[in-house]
Amino acid sequence: QVQLVESGGGLVQAGGTLRLSCAVSELTFSSYAVGWFRQAPGKEREFVAAIRWSYGASTYGDSVQGRFTISGDKAKNTINLQMNNLKPEDTAVYYCARSPSISRTQQQYTHWGQGTQVTVSS
Predict the structure, then answer these.
(1) How crowded is residue 29: how many other Cβ atoms within 10 Å of its Cβ?
(2) Residue-by-residue DSSP string for the chain
């Protein structure tokens, strides 16, 4: 079975930074992609970023381009999301998910974590 567990969410002021982590199982002897999505109350789930484990190739949603950075820590089997210059509109539950290949579409992801809350105050 595949398991993903997010951590690092919290409350920060606008302009601040936060780093999320996603612990991923079944990483050894396999290749896949891990992505971050977010969902605010009353809104649809939005793509944030994704990374291909094999080569470290990554892609970002337009709303976070230049502010967020996704990376992998293979020694710890984790995927990190460094979030800089946070804005109130970044407030949402952030989900980590796994896909057979890198994708910006949530339907392509087969396994999901429980989510972690990020709140950005004005």
Answers:
(1) 5
(2) ---EEEE--EEEETT--EEEEEEESS-TT---EEEEEEE-TTS--EEEEEEETTT--EEE-TTTTTTEEEEEETTTTEEEEEE-S--GGG-EEEEEEEESS--S-GGG--EE---EEEEEE-
In order along its 122 residues, the chain shows pLDDT tens digits of 788 999 999 999 999 999 999 998 865 546 789 999 999 999 999 999 999 987 789 999 999 999 999 999 888 889 999 999 999 999 999 999 999 989 999 999 999 999 999 999 99
Place of tokens 């087969």: 110
CB atoms within 10 A of CB 102: 19
Structure-block tokens of residue 7: 């951590």
Pairing status of strand 116-121 against strand 92-99? antiparallel
Which residues, including other chains, have CB under 8 Å from residue 24's CB and lie 6 or more apart? 2, 3, 4, 34, 77, 78, 79, 96, 98
Cβ atoms < 10 Å from Cβ of 49? 24
